[in-house]
């Protein structure tokens, strides 16, 4: 056994820190919460305004535009139709609004951080362990304080999803920027590119496939959080899964679960096809 | 301002790469011969270029020749500080490059010279035309103007009709033509070429060499040309410098170098060329006697 004499607990310190945050900075967290909520509601309203067939049409057209495969596009467009058939359309939209909100936030925060990580060695060194932590820390550990700070419902769900989904976009942005061949960078510099021009004209476009792979990963991670975030009161497909677990209703759980899968497949195929279009042409 | 007669002046240029973070090499270190020797022998640093001085005149094609690792690539990069020289001075068209601040350097690179690379350095996500426009874009020229100029440059290198293609669709020789067009379109007085034809197969290489010579007759630029291929050096160069282990061992016209190699290293380089000339003479002589005999018989 590990000797008891060496035991030191940081739990009280963490507790005090969170208590302190809640008591002293409540207004700040409230305003952050309000901001995220209004963003979320805007996304939700836009999603609600589109008729159901609009989604199916959009999936079909986007898939056709980006892949030029007819059968694949029809199959892909059928998947959201199935979700509707299960009577889960509304819940899927609610999940989707949380996912879209957190992915947009992840991009707004993650892309600049990825560029910084690739450019400044110090940032890379500090960010790397933090990202590791964000990805491996069991999500319930930060769900509890998130709930305490932001209350129940969709806002902490967005934040928890953000924490989980942010690392891939940062990492893959930095990776893509660092993978640009040195010969091309050198040529750009020789023709008088400034540091910013080098990033804008050469490194970002060449890193685009990797960055979009990061966006894809981020979206997938966000989907994985759907069920967990329903545990803190976010409505959506996850709620349905949770409910059927409680009632041991296997069939109902399966319908909700397969709907999450369909949602994931649609988003994954669309973003991947988009990523392919950004690759430098082979001919 | 009266233009100096030399296009490029290099004075006592040194480059020592440090392989260890803790090892900082200052410009005064190069004066300590023992220390440099020690660094050269050790693992912590690489002395890539030692005390290089030379001048290139206007309108001249100056060749830097040497085997890989002789410091020739370092030298051409130091000219525009893609590699920061450890010590020494580079003056191009009367402008002291080594003393420029960053913004001045960027401006200088945009205006005064252009460069062609061994590995082309083309942007895979831009069309051939946009690749040629690249330098002009960095310079801030208008879209229409740069498209017109770029189309002209592409025509010059024989790539008319390829404007809309992407580099991946082109063969190595054609890619390098794009690289050359990108350099020519800048209309800069000095052209730096870093082993531009080394990656190409012999026939294409020869074709491009000929075209370059032909273009040069018309343009009369100052060309600083790095190669490891002696026959290329002899074909293209007005004068050449031969580098060995970071030092220049001989500077002279191709004829001088072949006739009077400065040391064994140069002699070895030149030997092949001499052998080939000899062999060619022998072959031609044999052919001649055979023809004479044939004529005799008939």
Explain what this protein looks like in three dimensions:
Chain A has a single domain (11-278), classed as MetI-like (MetI-like fold), CATH 1.10.3720.10. With 283 residues, chain A is an all-alpha fold. Chain A is globular, with a radius of gyration of 22 Å. Chain A starts with 10 loop residues before the first helix and ends in a 5-residue tail after the last helix. In chain A, helix 6 crosses helix 7. Chain A has helices at 11-49, 52-67, 70-85, 89-119, 121-136, 139-150, 154-178, 182-190, 195-224, 226-230, 237-246, 250-278. A six-stranded mixed beta sheet of chain B has the order 6-7-8-3-9-10, sandwiched between helices. In chain B, strands 2-1-4-5 form a four-stranded antiparallel beta sheet. Chain B contains ten helices and ten strands. Chain B has helices at residues 33-41, 72-79, 102-112, 128-139, 143-156, 172-184, 202-219, 230-236, 254-259, 264-297; strands spanning 6-18, 45-57, 61-65, 87-92, 95-96, 113-116, 190-194, 222-227, 239-244, 247-252. Chain B is globular. In chain B, strand 7 (190-194), helix 7 (202-219) and strand 8 form a beta-alpha-beta unit. Chain B is of the alpha/beta class and 298 residues long. The chains are: A mainly alpha (283), B alpha/beta (298). The A-B interface holds A 181, 183-184, 186-194, 197, 201-202, 205-206, 208, 280-283 and B 80, 82, 106-111, 114-115, 117, 119-125, 134-135, 137-139, 165-166, 168-169, 182, 186, 192.
Task: Offer a concise description of the structure.
In chain A, 84% of the residues lie in helices and 0% in strands. Chain A is mainly alpha-helical.
List its traits.
heterodimer; A: 283 residues; mainly alpha; MetI-like fold; globular; B: 298 residues; alpha/beta; 4-stranded antiparallel beta sheet; 10 helices; 44% helix
The dominant shape of chain B is: globular
Taking Cα atoms only, what radius of gyration of chain A do you get, to the nearest Å?
22 Å
Poorly predicted tracts of residues of chain A: none
* CATH class descriptor name of chain A: Mainly Alpha
Terminal residue distance of chain A: 65 Å
Give the overall average pLDDT of chain B: 85
Radius of gyration of chain B: 22 Å
Q: What structural class is derived from the secondary structure elements of chain B? A: alpha/beta
The mean pLDDT of chain A is: 88
Which stretches of chain B are low in confidence, meaning pLDDT under 50 for 5 or more residues running?
Answer: none
Q: Helical amount among residues of chain B, as a percent range?
A: 40-55%
Largest chain interface and its two residue counts? Answer: A-B, 22 and 30 residues
Provide the CATH topology of chain A: MetI-like fold
CATH-scheme architecture of chain A: Orthogonal Bundle
Oligomer: heterodimer
Strand neighbour order, sheet with most strands of chain B? 6-7-8-3-9-10
């Amino acid at each position: 056994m590990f000797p008891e004499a060496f035991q030191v607990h940081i739990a009280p310190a963490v507790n005090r820190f969170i208590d302190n945050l809640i008591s002293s900075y409540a207004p700040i967290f409230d305003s952050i919460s309000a901001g995220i909520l209004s963003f979320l509601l805007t996304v939700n309203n836009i999603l609600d305004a589109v008729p159901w067939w609009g989604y199916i049409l959009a999936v079909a057209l986007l898939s056709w535009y980006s892949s030029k495969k007819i059968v694949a596009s029809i199959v892909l467009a059928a998947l959201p139709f199935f979700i509707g058939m299960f009577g889960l359309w509304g819940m899927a939209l609610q999940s989707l609004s949380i996912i879209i909100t957190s992915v947009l936030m992840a991009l707004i925060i993650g892309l600049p951080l990825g560029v910084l990580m690739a450019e400044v060695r110090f940032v890379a060194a500090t960010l790397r362990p933090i990202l590791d932590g964000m990805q491996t820390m069991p999500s319930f550990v930060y769900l509890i304080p998130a709930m305490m700070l932001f209350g129940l419902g969709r806002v902490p769900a967005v934040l928890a999803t953000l924490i989980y989904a942010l690392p891939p976009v940062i990492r893959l942005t930095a990776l893509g920027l660092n993978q640009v061949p040195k010969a091309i960078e050198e040529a750009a510099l020789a023709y008088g590119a400034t540091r910013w021009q080098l990033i804008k004209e050469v490194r970002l476009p060449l890193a685009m496939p990797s960055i979009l792979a990061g966006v894809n990963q981020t979206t997938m991670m966000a989907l994985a959080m759907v069920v967990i975030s329903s545990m803190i009161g976010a409505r959506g497909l996850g709620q349905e899964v949770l409910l059927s677990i409680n009632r041991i209703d296997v069939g109902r759980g399966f319908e909700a679960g397969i709907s999450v899968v369909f949602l994931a497949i649609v988003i994954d195929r669309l973003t991947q096809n988009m990523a392919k279009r950004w690759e430098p042409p082979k001919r | 301002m009266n233009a100096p007669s030399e296009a490029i002046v290099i004075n006592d240029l040194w480059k020592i790469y440090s392989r260890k973070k803790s090892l900082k090499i200052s410009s005064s270190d190069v004066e300590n011969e023992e220390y440099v020797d020690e660094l050269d022998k050790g693992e912590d640093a690489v002395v890539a270029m030692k005390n290089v001085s030379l001048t290139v005149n206007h309108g001249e094609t100056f060749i830097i020749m040497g085997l890989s690792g002789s410091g020739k690539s370092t030298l051409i990069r130091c000219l525009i500080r893609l590699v920061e020289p450890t010590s020494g001075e580079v003056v191009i068209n009367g402008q002291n490059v080594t003393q420029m601040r960053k913004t001045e350097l960027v401006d200088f690179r945009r205006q005064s010279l252009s460069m062609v690379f061994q590995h082309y350095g083309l942007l895979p996500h831009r069309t051939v035309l946009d690749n040629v426009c690249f330098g002009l874009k960095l310079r801030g020229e208008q879209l229409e103007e740069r498209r017109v100029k770029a189309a002209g440059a592409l025509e010059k290198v024989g790539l008319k009709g390829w404007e809309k293609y992407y580099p991946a669709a082109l063969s190595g020789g054609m890619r390098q033509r794009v690289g050359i067009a990108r350099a020519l379109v800048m209309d800069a007085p000095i052209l730096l070429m870093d082993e531009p034809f080394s990656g190409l197969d012999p026939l294409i290489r020869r074709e491009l060499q000929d075209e370059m010579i032909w273009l040069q007759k018309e343009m009369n630029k100052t060309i600083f040309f790095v190669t490891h291929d002696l026959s290329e050096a002899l074909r293209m160069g007005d004068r050449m410098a031969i580098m060995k282990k970071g030092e220049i061992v001989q500077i002279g016209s191709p004829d001088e170098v072949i006739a009077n190699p400065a040391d064994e290293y140069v002699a070895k380089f030149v030997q092949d060329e001499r052998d080939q000339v000899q062999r060619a003479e022998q072959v031609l002589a044999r052919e001649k006697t055979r023809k004479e005999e044939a004529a005799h018989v008939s």
